[in-house]
Amino acid sequence: MLPDRLKIAAQPLEQAKETLAKLKSALDQVSKERKEKEQALQAAEEKITKLKGRLTELKTNKEYQTHLHEIESSNKEKGKIEEELLGAMDRADAVKKEVAAQEKIVMEEEKKFRAEKERLEHSLTSRSEAMKGVEKERSALSEKIEKKLLDEYKRLSATQKGLAVVALKGNICTGCHFSLPPQLVAEVKKGEKVLSCTYCHRILYAAPT
After folding, report:
1. Model pLDDT for residues 112-125, shown as the tens digit of each residue
2. Rounded mean pLDDT of 41-67?
């Protein structure tokens, strides 16, 4: 069936799209992390600027030393944030490259799927046209067949799993796999009249040797 074949053909494309979606989700996450680190760095820089601005307001040496220590701690925190920001930027760049590479894979898989879909649809159309020709030929031939024989053929098709006509190989009916009488075998091989299997009643023809 065409839908089943298309579903199978689409699997590599769906897998490629799923991988791309995961990579884009990862990129969104690392971009969010980068933005948070940038905001944290800005806040740290603003804090240090304010702390430095208050140095001139301090009156005692103790207050001054305490304030310098706070500035030093803030600078260390700022340095830590800068390192984390650089890490987030590196990860973002790496994931961006993966996303770009996966997008190319998705495009290639889309091309392959479209080509396979076109091939399958063309094949289906060709088969459909061929079947119409066969049905037309079958209809024309049916008119030339004796009605009693045609009715028997239809009955056998309905009751024998569609195998109304089977080959005779040696003295074996390939429909039921029983050995047939020598006289019947000889008559079938002559091909002068329509004969049926003694056991399953399918119509027989002599298989080419």
Report:
1. 999 999 988 888 88
2. 89
Q: Are residues 35 and 49 in the same domain?
A: yes
Please say whether the beta carbons of 186 and 192 come within 8 A: no
Q: What is the C-alpha to C-alpha distance for residues 124 and 164, in angstroms, rounded to an integer?
A: 27
Same domain, 92 and 187: no
Both 67 and 132 in one domain: the answer is yes
Predicted model pTM: 0.56
Whole-number Å distance between alpha carbons of 140 and 38: 82
Over 80: is that where the pLDDT of 196 sits? Answer: yes
Give the number of domains in the chain.
Answer: 2
Same domain, 119 and 168: no
Do residue 106 and residue 29 come from a single domain?
A: yes
C-beta of residue 54 within 8 angstroms of C-beta of residue 102: no
Provide the total of helices (H) and of strands (E) in the chain, helices listed first: 4, 3
What is the average pLDDT across 53-70?
87
* Sequential DSSP letters for 35-83: HHHHHHHHHHHHHHHHHHHTGGG--SHHHHHHHHHHHHHHHHHHHHHHH
Each residue of 10-35: pLDDT tens digit?
A: 999 999 999 999 999 999 999 999 99
Q: Are residues 97 and 64 in the same domain?
A: yes
Instruction: Say if residues 50 and 9 touch (Cβ distance below 8 Å).
Output: no
Q: Is residue 115 domain-shared with residue 52, that is, in the same domain?
A: yes
